[in-house]
Amino acid sequence: MPREAVESFRKLNTSGTKPTKFILCTALNFCAKLLNWRLGVQIHAQIIQKGLQDNLFLNSALVDLYAKCDAIVDAKRVFDLMEKHDQVSWTSIISGFSKNGLGKEAILFFKEMLLGSQIKPNCYTYVSVISACTGLESVFDQCALLHGHVVKLGFGVNTFVVSSLIDCYSKCGRIDQAILLFGAATERDNILLNSMISGYSQNLLGEEALKLFLEMRNNRLSPTNHTLTSILNACGCLTILQQGRQVHSLVTKMGSESNVFVVSALLDMYSKCGSIDEARHVFDQAIERNTVLWTSMITGYAQSGRAPEGLRLFECLVTEEDFTPDHICFTAVLTACNHAGFLDKGIEYFNRMRKDYGLVPDLDQYACLIDLYARNGHLRKAKELMAAMLFEPNSVMWGSFLSSCKIYGETELGREAADKLFKMEPWSTAPYVALASIYAQAGLWNEEVEVRKLMKQKGLRKSTGWSWIEVDKRVHVFSVADASHPRSQDIYAELERLNLEMKEVGYMPQQIFELESVDDEHF
Predict the structure, then answer these.
(1) Cα–Cα distance for residue pair 428/496, rounded to 1 Å
(2) Cα–Cα nearest to 72, from 113, 29, 106
(3) Which helix (H) or strand (E) covers residue 342, if one does?
(4) pTM over the 0.85 mark
(5) Is 37 helix (H, G, I), strand (E, B) or coil?
(6) Nearest residue to 100 (alpha-carbon basis) of 75, 67, 63, 133
(7) pLDDT tens across 226-263, in order?
(8) How far apart are CA 460 and CA 290, in angstroms?
(9) Residue 43 class from Cβ within 10 Å (0-12 exposed, 13-18 middle, 19+ buried)?
């Protein structure tokens, strides 16, 4: 319909008939829907020629057009020149700022709308300004304030507004607030279910996402491509291959295989489930291969222990496909080098970023190279690179560095890394456990005891590790020294048999000192 309307407008123009204000406004609205910026600019020129630049409805339509076409500077220029503003123009400019990642500006304009005009926001205004919060440092505080405002003005039952609040709370890690909102909803429609499924998936609550997805299917509600992406992500995180394949069948049935984000989620799911060949089949069958798919496939190979194939795919990407890689793609390539231990290649790719593509390495690429140096035993070089880069090392970087210090028994650097992590993540047990292990390996028993005492003073205990495996459509969960499984005796007997076989071929277990080996009385 929008395309036919735009074509009719073109014919009207060429016939010499003068379009009315109503026709111009309608044409701008259709241009906004089609993101046809070029025709919109031509209509804008006609509006100026006809002396209609002061028309409220035409200006509101222009603001909406430019905002949706990512021409936010033009949208603001039109908005600032308007003598009067209406609900459409305010909502359009706020939405434009939000879509273009300018959250602070969106909130400032929202405040100006409330305090400096007589125009009241509608549900679409609230959706736009709530979405703008997700990129801010104070995202939770801003979201909570808007939540209170929404309830006060009676928009608390609007599906679109509640959905945007759920999305905002989920993205800032406050899934508890999102669950409360969802539970209070009087009607669970497609929009709310999609938002909550996405929220569960983003917060690594895959089982809850799958339960809600089944509820959605039982109620004969249709999932969107975004829902499919969230569910595939949940299947990948839980490594449940059979359920992932069932979702893949649904993707095919719905005709969503042409959506690049769904295909990327399929690749990621199969890779995380260890079925890299199925992931490659999805990649080969993809109708459109953009940087998202190439990067997903390279990452899949890296995570599956087939890094050389991932690197060959990258070389194919930049030579045969004549594709320009971005920062994310190089992160995938450096990750592949990291998994395979290819230090020289990693350095080469890191240098090629700037030399061949004019890309300035950011924190992610530095993290990969620093980890690569550390994993290969070049701890001093890794430390020098951390000090030389323009970015402040984060907890992930220090954590991986500490793990390498533990592997190579580097006491001095390990202590420094642990001290950094004690300040950055005061309630995490990981740096205490790693440092205690480093001291124990070095025979520094007094220092090891001090670390344990420090843990006890802070009330920290290492959490139990769990692993799981799916067999015949059933998920079996295990922990260290677990004897709760009904076939525990058979499992331990098989482990003992495998242990004997490894010893026969020359394997000698390495003695590792861990906190679990010490009785509680030492704490």
Answers:
(1) 34
(2) 106
(3) none
(4) no
(5) helix
(6) 67
(7) 999 999 999 999 888 999 999 999 999 999 988 989 99
(8) 46
(9) buried
